[in-house]
Amino acid sequence: MAYSIVVVGTSWGGLNALRELVGKLPADFRVPTVVIQHRHRQSNHLLSTFLQERTTLAVAEVEDKMPIEPGTVFIAPADYHLLVDRGSFALSTDAPVRYSRPSIDVTFYSAADAYGSASVGVILTGANSDGSRGLRRIFDRGGLAFVQDPLTAESPTMPSAAIRCVPDAHVQPIEEIATALAGLSADEETLHRPPRESHERPTGTPPYRPSPGGA
Predict the structure, then answer these.
(1) CATH number for position 143
(2) Which of 71, 95, 127, 208 maximizes the CB count within 10 A of its CB?
(3) Does a structural domain hold residue 156?
(4) Facing residues of 6 across strands?
(5) Does some domain include residue 182?
(6) Using CA atoms, how far apart are residues 159 and 111, in angstroms rounded to an integer?
(7) Residue 210: its pLDDT value, please?
(8) Residue 60 is part of which domain span?
(9) Has 132 been annotated as catalytic?
(10) Which residue out of 4, 38, 48, 103 is catalytically annotated?
(11) Number of domains in the chain
(12) What is the C-alpha separation between 98 and 77, in angstroms, rounded?
């Protein structure tokens, strides 16, 4: 099967984890990859510079309405929720979710709703449970779910929470996750194609609405 998007969530220890994951993606990797890293609201663009130094793929910090392009690693900007639409991104200043903005859950939910079974979620090291519900959403829509082996994580809290929420996720060290991602083929035609019925939201499953604090 071909895939339209990979979304990667991380927090504490994420710089080293992302360096390893992104650095191991091949130069011809075409599936758009979105990184959500918890960081301070006043963080600058050093994360994109840091990752660009470790990959030949294009790295870009997302701007509102930016198109989703193959062969690119997109970075969620500090202090904005990043939402995946069909073929483009949107930024939101809604209240933090689980004390985080950007929220991993928010991005994962929107990716699942936009691309359904053509979406891939990856949870790496982190010190809270953000991302676990979003990974479940991707899995329930038929997408792939990967979680860093907590034994290899700088902070095992986030991977452990994701495993509890998605027991059938692929639990692997980062090197093996990168190898699995490298083997995925890209479905570039779906990036700007209007949603098909199979990608429509199931009855009774509302879109994810950011709520403040620890909700």
Answers:
(1) 3.40.50.180
(2) 208
(3) yes
(4) 33, 120
(5) yes
(6) 19
(7) 45
(8) 2-6+22-193
(9) no
(10) 38
(11) 1
(12) 17
Place of tokens 């870009």: 60
Tell me whether residue 198 is one of the annotated catalytic residues: no
Which residue in 177, 135, 159 sits closest to 25, CA to CA?
177
- Rg, C-alpha atoms of the chain: 15
* In a domain? residue 171: yes
Catalytic annotation on 130? yes
pLDDT tens digit string along 51-68?
A: 999 999 999 999 999 999
Active-site entry in 4, 48, 105, 130:
130
pLDDT tens digits, one per residue of 95-126: 988 788 999 999 999 999 999 999 999 999 99
Rounded Cα distance, 31 and 166, in Å:
23
Burial 60-83 (b: 16+ CB within 10 A, else e): ebbeeebebebbbbbbbbbebbbb
Measured in residues, the chain has a length of: 215
Reduce the DSSP state of residue 172 to 3 states and report it.
strand
Sheet (strand 144-148) strand order = 58-61, 72-75, 33-37, 5-10, 119-123, 144-148, 170-172
The verdict on residue 26 lying in a domain is: yes
